[in-house]
């Protein structure tokens, strides 16, 4: 997308129901998809108030209207539940600020879509696991998110990115990309291609179970990284799940698995020394404990049993996506060096191999907590 101009930003600011006088504004956060700004207003008699303003990326999210319908539907539902539970709805869920004409988003003269949220005070999101307690708190928070939305009709949500975690479809795409070999790179990554083809059963596993009706479709977050949880500065508790752009129908095991893929790895996602890459069973244990605790009995026994498979599937899928992008000429993921996507792909496949070696341990950990030994 074209960079946001000051004129665009001022136009957007003028069209939301903000209170007070704007005293400062600037870029905010570490996200790569939307353009995010922090605005500070001086409100008479109330002091300073912060709000978040975002230009949505309609290249990634082609239906911003449907996306906002999802967010408003889910956050309104959560707000009622939080109030019923005696919580603080201004801090425990996102709160959309309406435009001056009462809509949930604003379309500027350039055709770009904007939205605004109340700023969650006295809480922090962390880009990496600085202490294990944060990882545990994120698990409880994402599990609690599942718990609170267990009765929300998933089929009413729009699919904001089509086939986002359809591993079976991504596998079919991968095979076509290998056959096309538009960059002439396939010959140099035969080992990695073979790894994907040998794991076709992993790609098909959840899709087949869903078709048979053995696992339920739920409201899922689909981007369960640590930095999508706000952790209270005073209590250290995970209080709010943020970045709801990918909230749509999905599988609870995939939400669990994506967290493990990213948070329980002993190395960076693009680590070149594969001897450093493994799945920490200590962190896996911590996250499984927190997630199952947060779900508070809302998952089926089968879903809990399949949580290790969720970790393996999401790690495999991510590695396959990195390899697909490498074969297509690095057109989707941002790269910062030659072969960057290939390095990322290799770390994910090493994690899959490590999980396979530790499969019995992972199952034992999940079984331990599924038996209410939390």
UniProtKB/TrEMBL annotation:
Coiled coil: none
Presence of the UniProt keyword Magnesium in the record: no
Gene Ontology molecular-function annotations: transferase activity
Organism: Dorea phocaeensis
The entry's keywords: Transferase
Domain Aminoglycoside phosphotransferase: 110-264
PANTHER family found in the cross-reference section: AMINOGLYCOSIDE PHOSPHOTRANSFERASE DOMAIN-CONTAINING PROTEIN-RELATED (PTHR21064), SLR1880 PROTEIN (PTHR21064:SF5)
A Pfam short name: APH
Protein name according to UniProt: Aminoglycoside phosphotransferase family protein
Transmembrane helix in keyword set: no
InterPro entries assigned: Aminoglycoside_PTrfase (IPR002575), Kinase-like_dom_sf (IPR011009), Pseudomonas-type_ThrB (IPR050249)
